[in-house]
Amino acid sequence: MPPDKLGRFMMSPEFLERAKAAVARAVRDLEFRGIQPVYLDRKAGRIVGGGDDASGTNDSCDGRRTPDILKGQDQIRGAGE
Predict the structure, then answer these.
(1) 9 and 28 together in one domain
(2) Which of 14, 20, 45, 67 has an alpha carbon 20 to 30 Å from 38's alpha carbon atom?
């Protein structure tokens, strides 16, 4: 598929509808397996869902959070300094 055609498709309502359906299917599959999905609310900058432990910290990684590359945070601490 040519890039311009792919770009038009990705901006179309059909693509958004398919993407939402795929996410809904994935969430249902996770919940069926007993896994409670959590989400990042980009506007608030908080992790939501998954119960009381979704306060925005990640204890399994010693409190370090994955940087958000969409907000311009570097992947490697100190990069670009």
Answers:
(1) yes
(2) 14
